[in-house]
Amino acid sequence: MNFLQPARAGTQLLSLIGFATLAIWYVVPRLKPLGRADALTVLLWIHVFRYVALQAFSAQKAGFPISDGNLMEVVVGDGAGSVIAFATIVALRYRARLAIPLAWLLVVETIIDTFLNIRGGIHENLMGAANGVTWLILGFYVPLLMVSLALIIWQLVARRGEAFDHSAEGVSR
After folding, report:
1. 129: alpha, beta or left, given left = phi > 0 and alpha = psi -120 to 50?
2. How far apart, in whole angstroms, are the C-alpha atoms of residue 60 and residue 100?
3. At residue 86, what are phi and psi to the nearest 5 degrees?
4. pLDDT tens per residue across span 14-31
5. DSSP tag of 23
6. d(CA 173, CA 168)
7. Distance in angstroms (rounded) separating the CA atoms of residues 100 and 26
8. Is there a contact between 99 and 88 (Cβ–Cβ < 8 Å)?
9. What CA–CA distance (Å, rounded) separates 102 from 27?
């Protein structure tokens, strides 16, 4: 019996519950007094480090049974998410109008990327095959990304009419 599959699923579920609880109890109350740009920036930084998916190349070399096509889909998707997140942070810092469309682009890209990664993992029977760093990323970082994505959507929807704060701290950092 392969115990890794239920262990990974359990880890992801527990991490998702833990990060969601942390978000509700601690992050949400601290985001409310922030301006829209600053609140989004805090949440977007989590996505900047999605380039950690590049480790999938070494995981494949070490025996993770992912195909070259699926590997490239993972790396390109997460690399794109990383770049979009960073570009959005820069746009938010300078209060550019493009910031909100970029944030929505990240939301859409992340949803599509997540769907494609799940589909590819199921198609190639990768569920339970992860170990080492790959297992840690799937068990801890991916649930964190999902919770932050939900918070980003919440900020974009709940504050859709809010103008960027143009305080001295907001523009001249």
Report:
1. alpha
2. 36
3. -65, -40
4. 999 999 999 999 999 999
5. I
6. 8
7. 24
8. yes
9. 22
Buried b (16+ CB within 10 A) or exposed e, 88-116: bbebbeeebeebbebbebbbebbeebbee
DSSP states along the chain: ---HHHHHHHHHHHHHHHHHHHIIIIIHHHHTTS-HHHHHHHHHHHHHGGGGGGHHHHHHHTT----HHHHHHHHHHHHHHHHHHHHHHHHHHTT-TTHHHHHHHHHHHHHHHHHHHHHHHHHTT-TTT--HHHHHIIIIIHHHHHHHHHHHHHHHHHTTTPPPP--HHHH--
Q: What is the pLDDT of residues 39-53, one digit of tens each?
A: 999 999 999 999 999
Q: What amino acid is encoded at 117 in this protein?
A: N
Both tokens assigned to 165:
């704060």
Task: Give burial (CB, 10 Å; 0-12/13-18/19+) of 60.
Answer: middle
Joined together, the tokens standing for residue 7 give: 């262990």
Structure tokens at 89: 């942070």
Cβ-based neighbour number of residue 150 at 10 Å: 15
pLDDT at 172: 40
* pTM metric for this prediction: 0.91
* Residue 149, φ and ψ in degrees, nearest 5: -60, -45
Which amino acid belongs to residue 75? V
